[in-house]
Backbone:
């Protein structure tokens, strides 16, 4: 045990005797490790921010709006506008086996909302009670719409957080009344804030029963059809069935409106599942690239430490010869230089990990804007860095240590 303490003490004295060389070597590895963790952490924060944005819509949500289809089969220049109808929604719900849930939505952005205190403009959405089962709408106060509200066409409304703030700044909203284009609606619920930063779109939306919306605020400029809706939200029965569900919906819409379902340009839609998967692949590729760069950085750092340790062996040749002459074994000489190389590598790596973790902790409370979360220390990347540092430390200490241990005492003492 005493021998081990002696060797450790000699290691510290040797490193302290060459402070600048040791510092520059450690700085290179610490910078590489810290940069790797910080870059991967920033990427993970961006991934988490985008995931939150999609989660604020709902789980596995798919959208389809009205679109434009060719006037004649095979035509690419003459297009006609078609509008989704309530019949389209019913057919999608009952004839698409891969669709687990669907809701029709009427949306208007030209309705003026007036309370006893203020007025606001925002989107009014006419939705059935099941809308909350598809979309993410956390309640703050009061209640959500129910089936009786829809059946009886009750003039009731659930306010988004920003709409509530605007109409009832600092005042209770539940039970109060507002006018929507002069028609009185009772506030029965308010929603929690969705998202963060300057993303106000969803928080400005308010919700009324679908039947009341159809009665008072039908879509404008949509022709003469009496049951036109703005869009359909639907969910596949499972995430893996999203492409199949989309094809089934295409066939229903194309059949009802008389065009070829195989023409993708005829559909105005958004598959959030596909978008999330594409973004995930981008981030996975980014993490692989950054991980590769980090491993190369660590390898270069290990080569640098090997070089430094070889210089140390050359500088201390006479010391090695003297120690071997007075009885030091090859194992003790080898162990000392191995400890120096491993210590440099692991200490500098630990400083890099600690510095990156500290910087990310400082950024934890900073709002980086819409779509960005603060960077996070990725445990798998940190583990990979520790393992890589261990391998680099062994490589950096083993070869120079072996060179030092194999020196002959007489030849080492002759070295000038």
Residues:
């Amino acid at each position: 045990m005493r021998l081990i303490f002696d060797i450790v003490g000699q290691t510290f004295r040797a490193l302290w005797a060459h402070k600048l060389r040791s510092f520059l070597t450690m700085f290179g590895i610490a910078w590489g490790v810290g940069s790797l963790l910080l870059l991967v952490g920033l990427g993970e924060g961006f991934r988490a921010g985008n995931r939150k944005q999609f989660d604020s819509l709902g789980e596995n949500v798919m959208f389809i709006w009205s679109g434009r289809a060719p006037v004649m089969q095979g035509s690419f220049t003459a297009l006609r506008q078609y509008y989704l109808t309530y019949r389209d929604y019913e057919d999608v719900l009952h004839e698409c086996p891969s669709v687990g849930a669907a809701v029709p939505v009427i949306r208007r952005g030209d309705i003026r909302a007036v309370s006893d205190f203020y007025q606001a403009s925002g989107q009014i959405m006419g939705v059935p009670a099941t809308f909350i089962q598809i979309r993410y709408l956390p309640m703050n106060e009061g209640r959500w719409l129910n089936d009786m509200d829809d059946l009886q066409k009750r003039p009731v409304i659930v306010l988004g957080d920003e709409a509530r703030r605007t109409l009832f700044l600092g005042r209770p909203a539940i039970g109060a009344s507002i006018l929507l284009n002069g028609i009185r609606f009772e506030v029965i619920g308010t929603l929690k804030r969705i998202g963060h930063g300057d993303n106000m779109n969803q928080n400005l939306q308010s919700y009324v029963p679908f039947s009341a919306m159809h009665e008072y605020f039908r879509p404008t400029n949509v022709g003469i059809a009496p049951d036109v809706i703005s869009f359909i939200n639907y969910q596949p029965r499972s995430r893996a069935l999203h492409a199949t569900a989309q094809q089934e919906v295409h066939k229903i819409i194309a059949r009802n409106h008389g065009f070829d379902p195989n023409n993708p340009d005829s559909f105005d839609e958004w598959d959030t599942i596909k978008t999330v998967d594409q973004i995930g692949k981008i981030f996975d590729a980014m993490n692989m690239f950054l991980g590769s760069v980090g491993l190369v950085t660590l390898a270069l750092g290990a080569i640098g430490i090997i070089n430094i340790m070889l210089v140390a062996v050359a500088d201390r040749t006479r010391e090695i010869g003297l120690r071997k002459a007075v009885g030091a074994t090859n194992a003790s000489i080898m162990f000392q230089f191995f400890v120096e190389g491993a210590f440099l590598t692991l200490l500098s790596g630990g400083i890099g990990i600690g510095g990156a973790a500290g910087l990310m902790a400082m950024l934890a409370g900073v709002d980086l804007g819409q779509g960005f979360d603060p960077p996070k220390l990725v445990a798998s990347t940190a583990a990979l860095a520790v393992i890589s540092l261990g391998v680099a430390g062994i490589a950096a200490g083993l070869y120079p240590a072996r060179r030092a241990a194999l020196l002959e005492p007489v030849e080492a003492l002759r070295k000038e």
